[in-house]
Amino acid sequence: MLGKDTIAAIATGLSDSGIGIIRISGEQAVKIGNSIFRTVSGTAILKKAESHKMYHGYVVNKNGNAVDEVMAVVMRSPRSFTGEDTVEIQCHGGVLVMKKILNLALEAGARMAEPGEFTKRAFLNGRMDLSRAEAVIDVIHAQNEYALASSVNQLKGVLSDKICSLRKSILYEIAFIESALDDPEHISIEGYGEQLYGEINQWIDTLIGLLSASDSGRILKEGINTVIVGKPNAGKSSLLNLLVGEERAIVTEIAGTTRDVIQEMVSFSGMTFHIIDTAGIRSTQDIIEKIGVELAKKYAMGADLVLYVVDTSVALDDSDREIISIIRNKNVICLMNKSDLDPVVREEDILSLFGDHAARNHKLSMIRTSTREGIGMEEFQKKVQDMFYKGKVKSNSEVVIANMRHQEAMREALESLELVQKSIKNGMAEDFYSIDLMNAYKALGRILGEEVDDDLVEEIFSKFCMGK
To answer: Is the pTM of this model over 0.70?
Structure first.
């Protein structure tokens, strides 16, 4: 599936840094590397170089003049990232020197690699399946420690192993059915439907278990969409400033200071939050403030987490009732703010407006805080962890499905397996089983890249950065 050309690219960031890496991969990689690298003694050694051994020397131009002092390594096929002969040159990390070395490799016969082409070659050469290749970009783009751990698990093949095991079991049953139909005299299928039904139950449980964590997977990968709501002057902007660690929003004693939405991304406790501070929700005749209030309601309805800030020194009113009617079924952490003042609002008052079901379903937590004094922030962080992760994703063996393509393939496989069970219930002939079993087998194969077309492969790897 691959051309015979050799590719090259800068594999590190294109900015001044301590070290830069130029990667060359393909049939002519060693020849090209050998033409531009010389040892300290002036010897062209890479053609005979031992695989995976570093050599100290210089990159030289056509005139034999040194361009940079470098370390070079040859990784011979198939023991390389791409599965092809690969040369990596570690040079000083200046942009100019990295470009000079890359240009020398291109002049010597390599062509510029496309985005993600090294990883694509690893996939096409059988060095990794498609799910592991996709994990590479997830590792690069991970925004928090949970997302990184999940991506590394997928890179290690935790998801691949589960999918391969499922497909192996499905294929065994397909082969058995086909053999029984071809040789009914020697292979009995008496009572086979009931046996297969139980087997499929286990497969369905596995897929449902993987899919049930898909929303957590999205949150891991993209972060928690968090919206701060409350009445004017409750302390919403102070909370944002406290979480961000700087004066991001204007804070005054004047109610209604925030009229537009303010968005920030922050990380703490290994999690990423996309935080939106909104206008205080209240009845107002101010046209601009009205727009801000409507935006606040809109963002609150689409949030993963709502931080409902209540000024406990002021009695609850109709504005609080309106806010709670909007967020009642969301994941809510109610920050009972200004706890350093004499409180007039109790937890029971807030709970009565939410209803008992919110507390029973663990969608509502309440914390006494003071954004002015920084009180309650540690408890707040713990509440978020408990609400979204409950310690589950810390396990090294946890498989969290964040990829929409994987989710779609699993749902399709699930539907096909349920069709097999329906056929068994309806007393259909065994050859009907194999049709839907094969569909499930193919759907799961798409996760690994065994049942995908070239256009999808191109689309996936086009999202990678240059040099990876």
So the answer is: no
